[in-house]
Hints:
Elements: H1 2-33, E1 40-45, H2 51-66, E2 71-76, H3 85-93, H4 108-113, E3 116-120, E4 134-136, H5 147-175
Parallel strand pairs: 1-2, 1-3, 3-4
Helix pairs in contact: 2-5
Amino acid sequence: xxxxxxxxxxxxxxxxxxxxxxxxxxxxxxxxxxxxxxxxxxxxxxxxxxxxxxxxxxxxxxxxxxxxxxxxxxxxxxxxxxxxxxxxxxxxxxxxxxxxxxxxxxxxxxxxxxxxxxxxxxxxxxxxxxxxxxxxxxxxxxxxxxxxxxxxxxxxxxxxxxxxxxxxxxxxxxxx
Length: 176
């Protein structure tokens, strides 16, 4: 009798596990086929090595603290080969990990996929088509001249942007 109970139990598990696995695989396929991306704010500066890096780092930090689904990326209109050493040191001193951060040329795809685009005193490359308004923070001082001042001004603007996005998220939830 014990053997039959084990057989029935094993058979029952097969009937539960196999369909569950197949169902899970089919949902995985559906999910892969749909575009479920995190809204992105694209920060672009001339060299993609200082201002945009600082803005993206602080945006991610503040958005996470507010529980917003947004994330940031940084790019350069004419990217340097490496991060600006002053910005890198300053961010690391502020407790922000810069490993894996590398200046990258902004592309049309980056702009198209972004929910928001913020330039920091530069123009997007010629021919870049923008479907939404681009916000320009052109009066941010150079981090190389005074990292703390540049960081504080960027952080202030990023804080306002995060607050605005949080208000928008609340308004959207209230209309549902």
